Amino acid sequence: MANAENTTTANSDVIITLDMPIHRGDQVINVVTLRKPNAGEMRGLSLHELASMEVGALSRLIPRISNPSLVDHEVRGLDPADLTEMGVSIASFLLKRAQRESLPQ
Asked: Residue 69 burial by CB count (10 A; 0-12/13-18/19+): exposed, middle or buried?
């Protein structure tokens, strides 16, 4: 479900171009990279909630795996389309490599 502007790197990181940039002081964040989380970064979260793209679970995980690291209020202020794009990427991180590679681009 990634749009043409989003890419996946060789190490499974997903680069997401935001529809609605995040303003942090004088800085404008247009692009966020999400890296595949390890088990420890998902502590306290339900895999089911992450796979279902539950907003609360996403808002707890995104600050742990985003670059630049987004803070809670920035995640809560994301445009719904941008949050959905991140959620789809996170849900795909939960799949085995062969399953991810068989998904339509």
From this structure: exposed
Domain borders along the chain are: 7-101
State pTM to two decimals.
0.84
Q: What are phi and psi of 60, to 5 degrees?
A: -85, -30
Residue type, 44: G
CA distances from 93 to 12, 17, 37, 60 (A): 8, 18, 8, 16
Over residues 96-105, the mean pLDDT reads 75
Instruction: Show the 3-state SS of 50-87.
Output: HHCCCHHHHHHHHHHHEECCCCHHHHHCCCHHHHHHHH
In one letter, which amino acid is 53? M
Instruction: Specify the amino acid at residue 26.
Output: D
Does residue 65 contact residue 41 with C-beta atoms inside 8 Å?
yes
Structure tokens that stand for 35 in this block: 């890296």
